[in-house]
Amino acid sequence: MKVIQIKQSELDAGLEKLESACRLIGPVKEKNYHLFKTLESGQKPDLEYINTRLSAKSVLYPQSEVMFEFSLDKNDEQYAVLREPEKDRTPRAVIGIRPCDADAYKVCRRNFDTEEYQDPYWLKNYEATTLVGLACSNPCPTCFCTSAGSGPFSDKNLDILLVDNNDGYLARIVTDKGEKLAASAGWNTDAGSDAEAAIEKSRDQAESKIRSAVATDNLEKQSLIDLYEAESAIWEPEGFACINCGTCTYACPTCWCFDVQDETYGKSGVRMRNWDSCMYPLFSVHASGHNPRDTKIARIRQRFMHKLKYYVDKYEKGIQCTGCGRCVRLCPVSIDIRRVCNKMNSYNPETCSCEITSG
Ligand code: SF4
Ligand code: SF4
Q1: Using CA positions, which residue lies closest to atom 2 of ligand 2?
Q2: Measured between alpha carbons, how far is 67 from 82 in angstroms, rounded to an integer?
Q3: Around 74, how many Cα atoms within 13 Å sit in the side-chain half-sphere?
Q4: Which of 240, 245, 275 to mutate to test the pocket of ligand 1 (most atoms within 8 A of CB)?
Q5: How far apart are CA 199 and CA 201, in angstroms?
Q6: Most CB within 10 Å of its CB: which of 111, 160, 174, 307?
Q7: Distance of alpha carbon 96 from alpha carbon 136, whole angstroms
Q8: Who's near 110: CB < 8 A, 6+ residues apart?
Q9: 142 shares a domain with 9
Q10: Is 248 near ligand 1, meaning CB less than 6 Å away?
């Protein structure tokens, strides 16, 4: 891996060059928060941001997406044929994605790219995307990425990692995709032999600012049934407060559930998939009307058991969370995954208690 120096003016000039080669997506300020948006011609990403309100999940996995169109109109030349609508699969680059959000794509890939099923919508978007990450020098107090398998300087799922160095950015080129993008942008100034050491020093400084952590070392050893049945110790106090607003799941980069619906217009229509949330009362309703998760306790248990136990047991590769802290910051009733995780990790079925009992 090599490191190059990109001055601010070179970054701007390079992005202008890239406009003709790919679609650029970056953080844009709206009111008092930032969101990832496709950049207009000449528009620059705002890299002075801390983190976006919503994650970059929608870049690969839009909140609503047409899967295919159909028609039963005999006058339609596409009668009885399912067809995928035209989609923009042209190359695009996400400029300034945080390492936790890039790591979240790796987590989601375990769901969208399995031996049995390869999700064409997610995968084609993923393949078309180059990830230019921005190291996090000033993590939020709610971030706990270092104990969730990621880190403020993690480049594990990036093509390029940018590190702010006053004069612009040190850029670690991680993959061939990143190399190609840097060449197209004209970024090629060798940063010198001290560059890696400077990045490591900045990383250590950033990691030392992270005050939050979750304990996950015992989750795999815990009995699934014991955790599921820990109602009074874990699920009742958390479920009591939850108002099932779904904010946590919509903001989360690693929540991947969707609902499939047909929208028909006369004799033709589209099949859509829309983000859904296990926190909604209708999420698990069966066609019979029976709802196996008809209480708030059942729904909150599902969210945390999925992220912190079912995922752990199924993949044996960490938790389904990258520690971005969004759900902690945005939950209107202060339900905190760090507290729930520490409770699950420390739960003792003999005494029906956890080491942590409250926030
Ligand atoms: S954001 Fe909080 S209140 Fe809303 S569904 Fe999630 S845990 Fe419940
Ligand atoms: S569960 Fe919360 S902290 Fe973890 S990735 Fe999702 S939003 Fe971020």
Answers
A1: 327
A2: 10
A3: 0
A4: 245
A5: 5
A6: 160
A7: 10
A8: 315, 317
A9: yes
A10: yes
Amino acid, res. 245? C
Amino acid at the residue 12: D
Phi-psi region of 23 (alpha: psi -120 to 50; beta: other; left: phi over 0): beta
Distance of CA 195 to the CA centre of its chain: 29
pLDDT at 357: 59
Indicate whether 107 belongs to any domain.
yes
- Ligand 2 atom showing the smallest separation from residue 104 Cα: 5
Is the domain of 132 the same as that of 192? Answer: yes
Q: Is any ligand 1 atom within 6 A of the Cβ of residue 279?
A: yes
Ligand 2 atom nearest the C-alpha of 322 is 5
Q: Extract the residue ranges of the chain whose pLDDT is less than 70.
A: 357-359
Task: Say whether both 180 and 234 belong to one domain.
Answer: no
Whether residue 116 is contained in a domain is answered as yes
Please tell me if the CB atom of residue 327 comes closer than 6 angstroms to any atom of ligand 2: yes
- Provide the pLDDT for residue 358: 54
> What is the DSSP code (8-state) at residue 118?
B
> Which ligand approaches the C-alpha of residue 322 most closely?
2
Determine the atom of ligand 2 nearest the C-alpha atom of 100.
Answer: 5
State which residues form the domain around 229.
224-257+276-346
Residue 298, pLDDT score: 97
Is residue 57 located within the same domain as residue 160? yes
Residue 246 lies in a domain: yes
Cα→Cα distances 235→27, 255, 266, 309, 328, Å: 36, 20, 46, 14, 17
Whether 52 and 190 share a structural domain: yes
